[in-house]
Amino acid sequence: MSGAAVAAQPTAVPDEPLSRYALRLGDLSLILGQRLGEWVGHAPVLEEDLGLANVALDLIGQARLLLAYAGEVEGAGRTEDDLAFLRDPGDYLNPTLVEQPNGDFGETIVRQVLIDAFQLALYERLTSSANERLAAIAAKAVKETRYHLRYSSGWLVRLGDGTLESHARVQASLERLWRYTVELFEEDGLDRDMAARGVAPCLAEVRIAWSTSIDGILAEATLARPGELPYSWFGKRGEHSEHLGYILSDMQYLQRAHPGARW
Amino acid sequence: MNAPADAKSGTAVSGEWPLYEVFIRARGGLDHKHVGSLHATDARMAIEHARDLYTRREEGVSIWVVRSSDIAASDPRDAEALFEPARDKIYRHPTFYEIPDEVKTL
Fold first, then answer.
1. 10 Å Cβ neighbour count for A240?
2. Into which CATH architecture does domain A15-257 fall?
3. Between A and B, how many residue pairs show a Cβ–Cβ distance under 8 A?
4. What is the pLDDT of residues B11-46, one digit of tens each?
5. Max CA-CA distance within chain A?
6. Largest CA distance in chain B
7. How far is A253 from chain B (nearest CA, A)?
8. Predicted complex ipTM exceeds 0.95
């Protein structure tokens, strides 16, 4: 964006909770996009290499819009780049699920289905947010996310309802990753505040939509829904698994080593 | 093309994924045009791959895919018999009509 266009915008009123909420959404997309980007050059076939990269690019695009907005309403003059490249792990507010390692292709697909269905249920409701900026971002993102879920669920059905080997592997991945879905719907003060202001949907509603969608996909993929498992990470409050530090050291290396470096 | 292994046998399907030909309609009113080919396990995946490979820069509004093995093609060795007989039939071209002056946009 040109400097003139930035200057032309009215100065946003600082709103710390709104900034944190936008960061939660943006960090989810950013970290998941970064994770998917690790597949570039390593996917099982060329076509999937491009497929995963396309999803990653959509997610990075969402992250840019959301982080830029988070910076505006934070009111401290931080840009999307400052927020992406100069924060420490404890300042990241993405759910722990998206920072989990890619594993094999099947595990990446399981993680993707769980999060795509969540983003879809969330964005669909966010399009009618009282906050016009978030509503507009959601309207763009919801189309991308519909495709993401179509792509990931198609693969989960192929693998789940595939060979004995592929079925066993994605079922094991599902058991491994399921515990991290609890956090997505664990409402805290910020979630309640945003819902009360009409900015965000109520997470209990999102959970119902997600659950219905996931049950349908798992049934078609002949996979068993795991039981609820104990859980102790809350990435969205900044309490992350050990994986986030490694992701950030990769992602932030250039800006940390050469501050202000540009193309 | 090899038949896929039994879905529940647990044995890997040997060989490459089947080849699909991709046709893209650039915009409403135009024909679907052949743009290339790709590998996919099924038609749905072929459409998704086609979307990711061939419509990244808004090249299309509609995608057709067809298994390459389902296309019947003419044999290049038959070209003389198939196409040369048309060469001397110039009366098939609509170039012998007088066009009235009033017709401007033909």
1. 23
2. Up-down Bundle (1.20)
3. 39
4. 345 578 999 999 999 999 999 999 999 999 999 999
5. 60
6. 74
7. 29
8. no
